[in-house]
Fold each of these.
Amino acid sequence: MINREIRPAESVSEAVVQAVSTLEGCHPRALPSLYGVVNPDALNTLFRQDTERESGRTDLVSFRFSDSLVTVSADECIRVESTR
């Protein structure tokens, strides 16, 4: 399992792909398309870093991607766990 913060210069979907590739030990391009699991644009919009956050916001999204369970939370943290 890994926890990774979303960096200011990257989108949430980019951070998800990077985190999963790190956990699975492969190049990001070796992963299946994220579009096959979740809409990356919608994910980026839901957790967009340049918008003011409501106090106490608790948005959380979990989905399976490749051989991993990905959880993205409103605190800009991504948790990736192996499903193997």
Amino acid sequence: MSRGEAVPFAFIAEADRFRSNVTPPPRARRTFRQVAGSALVGLTIVAGLVGSVLVGLPALSADQDSPRNENPAAAEHR
């Protein structure tokens, strides 16, 4: 079957060119409570991420003393 032949379901081939004149209904405006609630959720997520970084920062620092070096006298008696 070559591409030049007619399609048995021509309406499917023409569906790409069809444009509807029906407009969707307008979106409902968000209330102050909805906006404040979504802002509060976003702020909570950001605060949690920042807090977890601040709590984990001492564990990531490279200049911390190793706990094995706290008592060097115990290493001399081996």
Amino acid sequence: MNIHEYQAKETLKSYGVAIQEGIVADTPEKAVEAAKRLTEQTGTSWWVIKAQIHAGGRGKGGGVKLAKSLDEVKEISSQILGMQLVTPQTSKEGKKVHQVLVAQDVYYPGESKTEEFYMSVLLNRASGRNMIMYSTEGGMDIEEVAEKTPHLIFHEEIDPSVGLQGFQARKIAFNLGLSGQSFKEMVKFVYALYAAYDGIDASLFEINPVLKTSDDKIIAVDSKVSIDANALYRQKDLAAMRDVREEDPTEVEAGEAGLNFVNLDGNVGCMVNGAGLAMATMDIIKISGGNPANFLDVGGTANAERVEKAFRIILKDQNVEAILVNIFGGIVRCDRVAQGIVDAYKNIGDIPVPIIVRLQGTNAEEAKKIIDDSGLKVHSAILLQEAADRIKEVLA
């Protein structure tokens, strides 16, 4: 689950991570009030207005701007709020901006220059250990840095049995070229950042940039945080931060119905019980000349109600030209699933695309007979190859 920048920063702050202070607002008037309060709290005389959406690259799309007066705060907030912000990480339609973060200006003048770094904490799946990835090239797309100057990206893996060690935090600060007070501040920053990552069951922390201010403070200017959805049951406060407006509405609807669903860009919808079988089904669709339009796992209770809901969700996609139902009857009986499909079909009415149903396992033969005798426009199959051949036929 992703959370907004302002939520991520407040979470980091609670673990002792120094942040760029800010106040969220959902109207231009509230943005002006936020700017006034921020000036009282921090002394800032300029403000950064940041669109709050679940996507990076906001500045490139016009979603991050500097305001040098309260009039500019109102004007810029009016421009950003309600806009469809398109960034390199959104679809071509972009995302609607519902809130802005009014943040203090931290690039204040001083005797020494400011520096920007990149830092993230994530799981290295190859080693099974958490990893801090960092670079001196902050403020840039890390993908671009990796492509053009890979030697400027450093990694530090953390042994889960002992956690982050002092020498590792000092090594990070050293590799970033810091010394004196900024070195000490970076060591503290790294410790607090890792504690936050571990404490909230995150799957990703990305701070870009981490700023060394002109007076040697180390602060998080931006923050992207993703939380492991499997751990939300023990992170109640974080679960409450979920903003469904930022998510695919079809995926939200499927989740509320207890279905595991991910939207894709293909033309063949698939309905399967079990994640592994779903992946194999997607492969079969691809091999057969189609492209999967979704990942949909109905789980072990593929009854008529769940099947009907799954059909309705798949049919919301106008690109779907066919639907493949692939059910293995282990715990669930195939004949009951078949009857559920027939009942669901009748409840929905005329389904405009062909449906291929492959049922294998307990009572598969009886299930095939139920489908064949239903009189509905449903193609039945028992073997996976039969289902693949049917897909080729209906897409031809």
Amino acid sequence: MITLKGENIYLRALEPEDLEFIHIIENDESIWEISNTITPYSKYLIKQYLEQAHKDIFEVKQLRLVISSYKEESLGMIDLFDFDFKNGRAGVGILVKEIGDRGKGYGYEALKLLIDYSFTHLGLHQLYCNISEDNETSIKLFTNQGFKKIGLKKDWIHTNGSYKNEYLFQLINN
């Protein structure tokens, strides 16, 4: 049995009822830098996305899950993207929406569940993530789960009129 349940949270598939939640996240300019977004998303486009969300990761090369509390509160989202079955790898992205919910272990638990699922059920060999050099919270989260910093992409992110460096982190399933 596939379990995406942790002690305090569980990961679940997207539902049509997530429209408002996703719309708020996708249009939050404070996180556009980490999501590489430059324009707002309409509810219409997000609704179309949700209608296709049931498709298999092998077809769409992405899996987006909601991080949910056992009180049925949507806390954030975690993604596998650039899913590459041939080479056994995928990128990981994670966001805990509310600042007050950060630092409580939800991201740590969600990432652990996704890592276990990726290696055990999807048969992936490695996961990677891209983190701007000033995002100390994400660096700590991923390194605490065993990700290693393997590279620096200089002047990789253009934000607020200047460029920032971005680290590449990798976790290999041995």
